[in-house]
Amino acid sequence: MGYAIVGSGKIGQAFAHAFARKNIDVTVASRRPPEALAPQARAIGPAVIAKPLRDAL
Q1: Closest CA relative to residue 30, chosen from 41, 19, 22, 21
Q2: SS3 57
Q3: How are strands ordered across the β-sheet holding 48-50?
Q4: Are 51 and 27 in contact (CB under 8 A)?
Q5: In the chain, N or C: fewer CB atoms in 10 Å?
Q6: What's the pTM value of the predicted model, to 2 decimals?
Q7: Structural domain of residue 18, as residue ranges?
Q8: Domain count for the chain
Q9: Per-residue pLDDT of the chain (57 residues; tens, 9 = 90+)
């Protein structure tokens, strides 16, 4: 099972960190393109992947 987090602010990042610590697959998305979120997602962990907003929904 995986989760999608819409929003890359402090709350979205906190959720992504929590899921990543448990090795749960997480998709992160926001109004920004996934390329802009990719470095942030990689820094959180390998289970976190940035995708377009449409894919996350």
Answers
A1: 41
A2: coil
A3: 2-6, 25-29, 48-50
A4: yes
A5: N
A6: 0.84
A7: 2-56
A8: 1
A9: 789 999 989 999 999 999 999 999 999 999 999 999 999 999 999 999 999 999 988
